[in-house]
Amino acid sequence: MPTIVVEVMPKAELLDPQGKAVAGALGRLGQTQSALANVTGVRVGKRFEISIDGEADAATLAAVRELADTVLSNSVIEDVVGIHVQDAPSGAVA
Amino acid sequence: MRIGVVTFPGSLDDRDAARAIRLAGADAVALWHGDHDLHGVDALVLPGGFSYGDYLRAGAIASLSPIMTEVIDAANQGMPVLGICNGFQMLTEAHLLDGGLIRNDQGRFICRDQGLRIENTTSDWTSGFAADAEIVIPLKNGEGSFMASAETLKVLEGEGRIVARYIGGNPNGSLNDIAGVTNARGNVVGLMPHPEHAVEAGFGPDTDDAMASGIDGLVFFTSVIAQALIAR
């Protein structure tokens, strides 16, 4: 089943408290796991997987683009950073 | 005067808002998110809570509720609408108010009595305050940090549309200490703090006079009632 993936991130210029909290935890892990010592930041966003019947044609993609800009994201605080099509929802058994 | 309070799945403060309306001297009318009917009310309150568990974004799914079609129409025709906390988030998501709300900058839910300065005393919900009145009402939210683009912020400041500003320290990282804003017409107001929890002596914030005696929140509701009387 074709799946349209929409990725949304908090705007780069805004503070992302969720990412900051995760980065803080990684920083603590970095004190004991040297491979993590060079982590400088984390930002947390959202990934939507929209399954559709039939083909992901131009009209469907345009409709999803519109949905991404108006519903799945809020342009005051977020940016849509990617839209792409994959064959099935992530993790689905083929 | 009849003031509607819309209950959404996950609303918490609808009963308190209705009680505040009655204490202020108007009739409270319970409205349901799934209806397309405002039951002929004269004003509206979108109450606080965690509609749809804050899924997607706080207030985002509720802003797409059936009743929001009527709420948006009524607001655009000048009906007074007050959004408190989650209601404020819904009003920004519905594009009735500028800006947006994100997680508090220190990453914590905040619940405390909060000082505010009322900087706009011409909106339908703040006309009963003296200019620059300083009040205390409860603040309780996890996503109360007000954000807007530099251009939007300039317009809001330039047009005097900042209704309330935090005083005594910015609790959540809101730009320009903004706690509440109004639209250009002054009928739609959004507030992160909760006036409906400071309307009855014995149950409000502490004051210098007595414990729990703060009723500063009542003025938001008496303001809209007075405005309606003037309009008649």
Automatic annotation (TrEMBL), chain A:
GO molecular function list: ATP binding; phosphoribosylformylglycinamidine synthase activity
Subcellular location: Cytoplasm
Record flagged with keyword Nucleotide-binding: yes
Alphabetical list of SUPFAM superfamilies matching this protein: PurS-like
Domain of life: Bacteria
InterPro entries: PurS, PurS-like_sf
GO biological process: 'de novo' IMP biosynthetic process
Quaternary structure and interacting proteins, as annotated: Part of the FGAM synthase complex composed of 1 PurL, 1 PurQ and 2 PurS subunits.
Protein name per UniProt: Phosphoribosylformylglycinamidine synthase subunit PurS
Role of this protein: Part of the phosphoribosylformylglycinamidine synthase complex involved in the purines biosynthetic pathway. Catalyzes the ATP-dependent conversion of formylglycinamide ribonucleotide (FGAR) and glutamine to yield formylglycinamidine ribonucleotide (FGAM) and glutamate. The FGAM synthase complex is composed of three subunits. PurQ produces an ammonia molecule by converting glutamine to glutamate. PurL transfers the ammonia molecule to FGAR to form FGAM in an ATP-dependent manner.
EC number from the UniProt entry: 6.3.5.3
Swiss-Prot/TrEMBL catalytic activity: N(2)-formyl-N(1)-(5-phospho-beta-D-ribosyl)glycinamide + L-glutamine + ATP + H2O = 2-formamido-N(1)-(5-O-phospho-beta-D-ribosyl)acetamidine + L-glutamate + ADP + phosphate + H(+)
UniProtKB/TrEMBL annotation, chain B:
Example GO biological process: 'de novo' IMP biosynthetic process
Molecular function GO terms recorded: ATP binding; glutaminase activity; phosphoribosylformylglycinamidine synthase activity
E.C. designation(s): 6.3.5.3, 3.5.1.2
Localization annotation: Cytoplasm
Catalytic activity: N(2)-formyl-N(1)-(5-phospho-beta-D-ribosyl)glycinamide + L-glutamine + ATP + H2O = 2-formamido-N(1)-(5-O-phospho-beta-D-ribosyl)acetamidine + L-glutamate + ADP + phosphate + H(+); L-glutamine + H2O = L-glutamate + NH4(+)
Pathway: Purine metabolism; IMP biosynthesis via de novo pathway; 5-amino-1-(5-phospho-D-ribosyl)imidazole from N(2)-formyl-N(1)-(5-phospho-D-ribosyl)glycinamide: step 1/2
Transmembrane segments: none
Protein keywords: ATP-binding, Cytoplasm, Glutamine amidotransferase, Hydrolase, Ligase, Nucleotide-binding, Purine biosynthesis
One GO CC term on file: cytoplasm
Active-site residues annotated for this sequence: C85, H194, E196
Function: Part of the phosphoribosylformylglycinamidine synthase complex involved in the purines biosynthetic pathway. Catalyzes the ATP-dependent conversion of formylglycinamide ribonucleotide (FGAR) and glutamine to yield formylglycinamidine ribonucleotide (FGAM) and glutamate. The FGAM synthase complex is composed of three subunits. PurQ produces an ammonia molecule by converting glutamine to glutamate. PurL transfers the ammonia molecule to FGAR to form FGAM in an ATP-dependent manner.
Designated name of the protein: Phosphoribosylformylglycinamidine synthase subunit PurQ
This protein's encoding gene: purQ
